[in-house]
Task: structure prediction
Amino acid sequence: MGKRDESDEAYVVDLCNRLLGERALTQHKFDWLLGDPGAGGRRAKLPVDAYWPGHQLVVEYRELQHDQPMPHFDKPDRITVSGVHRGEQRALYDARRDAEIPAHGLRLVVIRPADLDGDGRGRLRRNREADLVALRAILARDSDEDRVTDAFRTWLLAQGWTPIAPTDRWTDIEAVRGNQRLICEAKGRTSEKGIDADIAYGQLLRRMTNDAPDIRYALVVPSSSVKAVERVPVHVRSLLRIDLYEVTDDDQVLHLLA
Result:
C-alpha cells in the first residue's frame, strides 16, 4: 500500500464513496483542466483528488499547505514553470480548479481538515462516525430538488444504471442500463404541489421525441408530492411509459408501482 492510499485524502475519499454509493476516480485528469506551459509549450493536465461521474461531482481535499505558507511543501528556492515557487503555483492551480470545474458543469466541493475531526496540525483523528456526519452535511445540496436528484442518482447506481450527460440539457437525470434508457424529471419540496406536478408532467411530455420502446420516463418527487403526481391515472402513465419514484425524507427511494 502506497503513502497516498494511507493518506487523509484517501480516507476522506473512501468515506465519500460510502455516502455517495459510487467509487471515485481518484487523481482524475480532464482534458480542459491544464497547468501552465512548460518547456516547448506543453501544458500538463492537472489532476483532481476525486471525481464521481455518476454524481457529476469533484471533491478536493486541501490540507494546511493549501491555505498557509509551509516551506517544506512550498520549496521557495525552486521556481516552477509558472514563474513562481511551488506554494504560489499551488494557489494558482487551486484557483484554476475552482473556476474551471464549475464552468464545465461539474459540482466542486472543497473539504479541509478543520471541516472534520482534525488536530491542531491538520491531521485527521479518523473518527469515522463523526466524520461521516460532517461529510454528509458538506455534500448535501442547497435545495431540496438537489437533495432529491442526488438521492435518486445514488439509487440508480446501486440498481446498475449509469447516469450520463442528458441528450436534452434541460433534463435533470438521464441514465442507461444495457439497452434501456431512463429520462427523469426531479422536483423538490414545494408549497404548490399540484401546479409543480402538472409542470413536471408537461416537461416530460416535451422530451418524448423518440418512440423507441426501450426508453422510459421518470418523475422523481419527495414524499410530500406523491399524492399530487398520482392524480394522473395509472393507465395514462403506463401508456406514456412514465414511472413514479418517491424520495423519502431520509433519502430512501421507492418505486411507486400503482
